[in-house]
């Protein structure tokens, strides 16, 4: 079965785009909406997606009455401001 890039609920696309921009800003990626994603590292793009998923899971847990963070969150949300490649830059 092939993966589809279409959201299950097409009306949710605008909200997902807004969540992506907000998450990128929290991670220190400014002007993410207008940035060519190919110019960013895969670590940065993956970090945005990973944090989006974490936020969506937290939101659902809260709606269901569960406590977010009960699965051992490390508490590092929003603290990453460098890319992995910039932290491990061999040339500097």
TrEMBL record:
Record InterPro entries: SASP_alpha/beta-type (IPR001448), SASP_DNA-binding (IPR050847), SASP_sf_alpha/beta (IPR038300)
Biased composition (Low complexity): 70-86
This protein's name: Alpha/beta-type small acid-soluble spore protein
Chain residue ranges for the region called Disordered: 58-92
Source species, domain of life: Bacteria
